[in-house]
């Protein structure tokens, strides 16, 4: 049975959950906080996490190879986007591998949330994975976050944060069971429909090398298929930037 830990303030839910994972708290246990003072994004970036947002981390003990961790990010993203649509009527999209975004009528792309999946390895397999998620819900974005948007701004009303968390967790559990049973292809089909990137020209910073091309598809294993001048490239991780004309 999972445990849920709520804090008024922590440095980072990701850091707290990593400590709990070393103590072997139950699978899919959750840490969430009203405020993070040192929230973590990808590549060591700071994630501003004031009151009014949803900031949480979940631990998993999956029997997976390290390169399969992208599947966890994918099901977390789907769970978040589907929940937001049901509770707030907002159509969000997923920017592979980890961004939750809103595309406005003029084609502008604004970040509503993000996912950080970190793994600790055992013998060849993942020992545990910690999935962190941050969503701008009712928080004021401030002038310094002009590229971001809150759910409150998009739908014009406040969202119940605990209800949002509960429903995301429930949906995640459902997709995680599908993944555990080996049925990931139906999940990928859902992700493809929510993908922001398919057909777009992008650059990808992957492992210190920069690739340019057009996103062809999200493959059956959750990887990104990029059509480049040198042929198709299969990527399991990377920083994607959309090429604007």
Describe the protein:
It is a single chain. The protein is α+β, with helices and mostly antiparallel strands and 245 residues long. The protein has 2 domains: 4-194, BirA Bifunctional Protein, domain 2 (2-Layer Sandwich), CATH 3.30.930.10; 201-242, Roll (SH3 type barrels), CATH 2.30.30.100. The chain is 27% helix and 37% strand. The chain contains 5 helices and 13 strands. It has helices at 13-22, 69-88, 151-155, 161-180, 184-194, and strands at 4-10, 30-40, 46-49, 54-60, 93-95, 99-103, 109-121, 126-135, 201-206, 209-218, 224-228, 231-235, 239-242. The strands form 2 sheets. Strands 1, 2, 3, 4, 5, 6, 7 and 8 form an 8-stranded mixed sheet that branches. The protein has a 5-stranded antiparallel sheet with strand order 12-11-10-9-13. It is globular, with a radius of gyration of 17 Å. The protein starts with a strand and ends with a strand. The relative contact order is 0.15. The model has no long low-confidence stretch (mean pLDDT 91).
Which short descriptors sum up this protein?
245 residues; alpha+beta; BirA Bifunctional Protein, domain 2; SH3 type barrels; 2 domains; eight-stranded mixed β-sheet; five-stranded antiparallel β-sheet; 5 helices; 27% helix
Strands, helices and their partners?
Layout: E1 4-10, H1 13-22, E2 30-40, E3 46-49, E4 54-60, H2 69-88, E5 93-95, E6 99-103, E7 109-121, E8 126-135, H3 151-155, H4 161-180, H5 184-194, E9 201-206, E10 209-218, E11 224-228, E12 231-235, E13 239-242
Parallel strand pairs: 1-2
Antiparallel strand pairs: 2-3, 2-4, 4-8, 5-6, 6-7, 7-8, 9-10, 9-13, 10-11, 11-12
Helix pairs in contact: 2-4, 2-5
């Amino acid at each position: 049975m999972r445990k849920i830990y709520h804090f008024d303030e922590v440095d980072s839910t990701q850091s707290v959950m990593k400590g709990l994972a070393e103590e072997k708290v139950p699978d899919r246990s959750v840490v969430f906080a009203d405020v993070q003072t040192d929230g973590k994004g990808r590549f060591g970036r700071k994630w501003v996490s004031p009151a009014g947002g949803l900031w949480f981390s979940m631990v998993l003990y999956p029997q997976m190879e390290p390169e399969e961790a992208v599947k966890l990010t994918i099901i977390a993203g789907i769970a978040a986007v589907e929940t937001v649509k049901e509770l707030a009527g907002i159509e969000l999209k997923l920017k592979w591998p980890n961004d939750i975004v809103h595309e406005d009528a003029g084609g502008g792309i604004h970040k509503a949330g993000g996912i950080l999946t970190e793994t600790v390895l055992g013998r060849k397999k993942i020992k545990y994975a910690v999935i962190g998620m941050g969503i701008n819900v009712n928080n004021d974005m401030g002038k310094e976050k002009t590229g971001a948007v809150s759910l409150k701004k998009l739908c014009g009303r406040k969202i119940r944060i605990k209800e949002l968390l509960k429903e995301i967790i429930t949906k995640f559990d459902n997709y995680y069971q599908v993944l555990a049973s080996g049925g990931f292809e139906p999940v990928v089909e859902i992700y493809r429909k929510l993908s922001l990137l398919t057909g777009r020209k992008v650059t990808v910073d992957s492992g210190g090398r920069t690739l340019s091309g057009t996103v062809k598809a999200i493959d059956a294993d959750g990887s990104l298929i990029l059509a480049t001048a040198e042929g198709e490239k299969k990527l399991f991780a990377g920083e994607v930037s959309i090429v604007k004309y």
